[in-house]
Amino acid sequence: MNNNEKIKVAITAGIVSVILLILVIFLAVTTKKDAVDDDTKLSENITDYASFSEEGAGKVDDSAVLASSEDGADSASTSGSSEVMSYSEYVDSVAGSVSGNSFYETKAAVLRDVYNGLTFDKNAQLKEMMTYWEDGNMEAVRDLAHLERFEVMSYQLGGTDFFYYYGETNAEGKPNGKGIAVYANDQYYYGEWAEGVRSGNGTWVAFYPSYSRYVVTEHLYTGSWSADLPNGEGQEHYDYNAEYMNKQDFYLQNAIGTFKDGKYNGDMYIISVDKDDHSTEWYGKCIDGNWEQIINTTKDKNGKIPVLYEREDNKSYYYMTSEGSQNNGIDGMITGGSVAK
User: Fold this and answer.
1) Is residue 214 within 8 Å of 242, Cβ to Cβ?
2) How many domains does the chain have?
3) Which stretches are transmembrane (predicted)?
4) Regarding beta strands 263-264 and 119-120, do their DSSP bridges make them parallel or antiparallel, or are they unpaired?
5) What is the pLDDT of residues 47-100, one digit of tens each?
6) Which of left, alpha, beta for 336 (phi over 0: left; psi -120 to 50: alpha)?
7) FRET label pair with 95: which of 12, 50, 63, 281, CA 20 to 30 Å apart?
8) Is residue 146 domain-shared with residue 261, that is, in the same domain?
9) What's the domain range around 94?
């Protein structure tokens, strides 16, 4: 190869490298923008369709009393409760799961049982996550929840309703005021507490592990609470992995309205989403978790009940079985319990 040919090869390689670099930068910027847009859309939905208003998050002073009396790092083990399902068993149990009768069946997030010997510091980690939550940086909260040191913290609570807590407490050491908690199954709550239970305004999230083969990637409720349950105005929200979605099921993305002890109660605004990321808006009425049949309608030939009608076409209905129309609300949420020491 003569010198001219070598120069041509070098120039060509340089041009290709520059094009690849530009492509990588474009993809990185686009991905980040999409993530920000997703959070913005969720915030806009809450503002537009749920009438509750959250007050600004007050910061907890570093000297605030912690509900946990233990200091330092905790060591993980895999002994756990006999009720905890192994990750391989979980994968087998959810593969190909189809509801077919109402909304897609929600299962609890299950973490891998591979954390033996991994240490964690629950107080330091919850304080770290709370800082981001106070700043409204949910992307950082998600990133932390998917780290092994956070997953093992939740895994240690598997099979129980105990929770680790960081934040303000009352004279008896119970959560009271503003605080954050982690439960089993990668569930978190940040918001207001009263006498040891979730009460006031707050947000609950179940994060599904990035290695999970389940269709749900995140399940969230934000709004009013009392007696440790969603009560009052609020919004339930789901994110899905399109790879595992099918054409048969009804995938709930948002349920906005009034909640009573975790169940839908009153006029509900529903947004569904399909495998191709197309959304549909619906209206319906649910009393104590039971969908009411739309007036002046009849059941279909299979006996299913019309319970939702489209916003853009009030003659287009969504039908559920009698069983599927009952007991609708936020599934999989761990309630009750007390602070783990």
Assistant:
1) no
2) 2
3) 7-29
4) unpaired
5) 454 333 333 333 333 333 333 333 445 655 433 333 444 444 444 444 444 444
6) left
7) 281
8) yes
9) 74-320
